[in-house]
Design brief:
Length: 409
């Protein structure tokens, strides 16, 4: 995965057929990886293979296919466990994505641990999915939300978090990597500080798991959430890691099949972990495809991926900084492969729409982070986000495209 080894990157790109297509008769330049990544053939074929060989509902059947599919599902759980170095498979809960994982914790944790007047600490750089679920609990239970400010460079400071902590603080929930700024937050230090006050921490790892090695035991986080589709897997599948201590205390998020031990009309007892939080038929095909995506990442090596993407970020920052009127939004020295920017007085939507006509796919708008935009005093940004399969040539095309668009205004 050496940055200069173009042949190897081109070989890897062959695993992603969508990257070779044309848009408006021009080669596609896909730079919207923070929204969703493309899927390698290995993942696509795994989905097809399951549907054509072992498709059957899990956990409830004694017939051969059901047994095989159940084994596949539980092996996938262990694959996720090993990928994030969780102590036990029962701490891995499958959900529909990061959003549901956060909603699950917000609902179940607050129901069991919070009362009116208790406080949840968030940061100003959170995605809407790590804001609104807590607001909903605020409206139901009367809890309060405190918000850590973001510095001009797009960072949060430990002293600002500590200043907000009180005897009523029940949990800190924050992103590991900002989907707008690319900032890598000092999660280890934040968790250590929070635990000094006996406060649990939820880490939104949607933007970090595909790019940065994750070890939940080393981090000592209490909850960690992420989505498959941002790490070369399918849509509709996500993960909640939770320390067994907390998961035992939290009530089920949803009721239905599989999450029960015994049901009468008078009383229901709940299943053991992790099934207590997995009501209904899971997306067992998507879960197996997530495991295949993890195996793909492991084959390349997460450290190699990070090195490659760090190189792309440095190259893109250098190339785009030479464009007249360029303004980067998020200038922390600790960043993942995300570049948000504005150029002169050009509206982000206009820039994105015209880049699209050049077959360059970027994201524009508030990126589901309106409070952050308000804090920065802007309406939105253009965002280019990179994956290991992107190339220096694609970044050159982006830079040339921005110059062409700028010349129109």
């Amino acid at each position: 995965m050496d940055s200069d080894d173009h042949l190897q990157i081109e070989t890897i790109r062959k695993d992603f057929p969508i990257l070779s297509q044309k848009v408006y008769d021009k080669p596609l330049v896909y730079l919207d990886n923070a929204a969703t990544t493309q899927k390698p053939l290995q993942v696509i074929r795994r989905i097809d293979d399951i549907y054509t060989t072992i498709n059957a509902n899990v956990h409830r059947g004694i017939h051969h296919l059901s047994q095989l599919m159940t084994e596949e599902l539980e092996e996938s759980r262990k694959t996720v466990q090993n990928f994030i170095h969780a102590p036990h498979f029962k701490e891995i809960i499958f959900t529909s994505g990061t959003t549901e994982s956060i909603n699950l914790v917000a609902s179940s944790f607050c129901r069991s641990q919070c009362k009116a007047g208790d406080e949840i600490i968030l940061t100003a750089m959170e995605h809407h999915s790590n804001i609104i679920p807590w607001q909903m609990q605020r409206d139901i239970l009367g809890i309060e939300i405190k918000v850590v400010p973001v510095t001009e460079s797009g960072e949060i400071r430990l002293e600002d978090i500590e200043e907000l902590i009180s005897s009523k603080t029940k949990l800190i929930a924050l992103t590991h990597v900002s989907n707008v700024l690319g900032t890598i937050n000092p999660i280890e230090k934040i968790i250590k500080m929070a635990h000094g006050y006996n406060i649990p921490v939820l880490v939104d790892a949607a933007q970090s798991v595909p790019h940065i090695p994750i070890d939940v035991q080393a981090l000592d986080c209490d909850f960690l959430v992420f989505s498959a589709h941002k790490m070369y897997g399918p849509t509709g599948v996500g993960v909640l890691y939770g320390k067994e201590h907390w998961l035992h205390q939290m009530p089920p998020y949803q009721g239905g099949g599989e999450m029960i031990a015994h049901v009468t009309f008078e009383h229901t007892t709940y299943n053991e972990l992790p099934y207590k939080f997995e009501a209904g038929t899971p997306d067992y095909v998507g879960i197996a495809a997530l495991a295949e995506a993890i195996r793909y990442i492991d084959t390349l090596g997460i450290y190699n991926i990070r090195e490659r993407e760090d190189h792309l970020l440095r190259y893109a920052t250098d190339q785009l900084s030479q464009i007249e009127g360029m303004r980067f939004v998020g200038t922390s020295p600790h960043k993942s492969a995300v570049l948000s920017f504005l150029v002169g007085a050009i509206h982000p939507y206009d820039m994105g729409m015209l880049l699209d006509r050049l077959a360059i796919a970027v994201r524009t708008g508030h990126h589901c982070a309106q409070p952050l935009m308000d804090a920065l005093g802007i309406e939105g940004t253009v965002r280019a986000s990179f994956a290991f399969y992107n190339t220096e040539r694609e970044i050159d095309i982006l830079a040339d495209g921005i110059r062409k668009v700028s010349g129109m205004f």
